[in-house]
Amino acid sequence: MGKVLDREALKVEIEKLKKRRKKIIFTNGCFDIIHAGHVKYLRDAKKLGHILVVGLNSDNSVKKIKPLRPINSQEERAEVLASLEMVDFVTLFDEETPYELIKFIQPDVLVKGGDWSLEKIVGADLVREVYSLPYIEGKSTTGIIEKILERYTKRNLSPQIFEKAKGVKLLVLDVDGVLTSGGIIFDNESNELKVFNVRDGHGIVMLQKIGVKVAVITGRHSKALERRIKELGIEEVHQGTREKLKSFNQLVEKYGYKKEEIAAMGDDIIDLSILKRVGFSASPSDAHEEVLKRVDYVTEKRAGEGSVREICDIIIRSKGFMDKYIDEYSNL
Predict the structure, then answer these.
(1) Do the two domains 7-144 and 153-330 of this chain adopt the same fold?
(2) Does the pTM exceed 0.85?
(3) All structural domains of the chain with their residue ranges
(4) What pLDDT is recorded for position 190?
(5) Which 3 state secondary structure label does DSSP give 107?
(6) Could you please report the per-residue DSSP string of 48-93?
(7) C-alpha 248: how far from chain center
(8) 272 and 248 in contact (C-beta within 8 Å)?
(9) Which of 63, 64, 147, 230 is an active site residue?
(10) If you ran DSSP here, which 8-state letter would residue 233 be given?
């Protein structure tokens, strides 16, 4: 018999152990990335009785309380927990809390970490003994994830940025200094020429495919932009608008988006009126210094060199579609 059991099989084993006067300890958690804090906590919990049972949040349960988690699947997390010498049994639960599981298996001791006060521990009314063990400062799965992101990914790409990006339904873009480098070229016929980045364009196309609307608001008017926008399938285009905020407000009113559902990207002070009114604001790395101070995210790429694609990728990845696109294009 293995250590990972469903609750019915676990109940049978617990009844046998209780007849042998074994004291059953129960604790629960996500245990996404096992670290030293977890190990010490479980070791100390085991000292409170004879048999340590760990209720493990299923993948669905974790998502209810931590939308971007788990990092590891429930099967992997259960296997790692079961390999620890102090853990006797592991069982999964789908609910947001383990209350029904505790009620069903009826342990003798209930244990949680020190970040839980005794009166707030779920299931405390069901057992004889309840303990809140000391919390180990500086040891957490979130801390590990943030450290990895800091060292191995973009300098300001934090879990909070992914949270902001996940809810985005509308991306509002400036043109000069965002979709282009900001340079303006006139030919001998006074036509305005612009250079667009192909990767930016494909990022916009992929974004629209997953249901994120893209809008362009710019103070200039250009036939070159009209052609590029048509190629990309962008329907909301506001050119030659000196009052960008007015166009933005019209968009919001038209579609009824909430602040946290809108992302915007600009490069100059004129764009701040929009940037401060969205849930996720961004600018290229070569934007005006006053804009750089005030946005949520600064791209590593410069304007016209893939900065828009960087934002598109973050939104796509946060919504869980990047692997889908990779598989799709890999199998063409």
Answers:
(1) yes
(2) no
(3) 7-144, 153-330
(4) 63
(5) coil
(6) TSSEEEEEEE-HHHHHHH-TT--SS-HHHHHHHHHTSTT--EEEEE
(7) 26
(8) no
(9) 64
(10) T
Q: Spell 299-317 as b/e; 16+ CB within 10 A means b.
A: bebbbbbbbbbbbbbbbbb
Q: Which CATH number fits domain 153-330: 3.40.50.1000, 3.40.50.300, 3.30.70.120, 3.20.20.80?
A: 3.40.50.1000
Parallel/antiparallel/unpaired status of strands 24-29 and 109-113: parallel
**Active-site annotation holder among 18, 22, 66, 324:** 66
Cα distance between residue 35 and residue 48, in whole Å: 21
The one-letter amino acid at 188: N
The pLDDT tens digits of the residues spanning 77-126 come to 999 999 999 999 999 999 999 999 999 999 999 999 877 778 889 999 99
Q: Taking the CA atoms of 158, 160, 162 and 165 in sequence, report the sign of the dihedral they define.
A: negative
**Omega cis (within 30) before 67:** no
Residue type, 22: K
R_g over Cα of the chain: 26
Over residues 203-224, the pLDDT tens digits come to: 999 999 999 999 999 988 888 8
> For position 248, what pLDDT does the model report?
95
Is 223 a known active-site residue? no
Region of 123 please: left (phi>0), alpha (psi -120 to 50) or beta. Answer: left
258 tagged catalytic: no
Tokens of 238: 């506001």
- 178, exposed or middle or buried, with CB in 10 Å at 0-12, 13-18, 19+? buried
Q: How many CB atoms lie within 10 A of CB 89?
A: 24
**The token pair that represents 277 in the structure block:** 């009114």
Parts of the chain with a pLDDT under 50: none
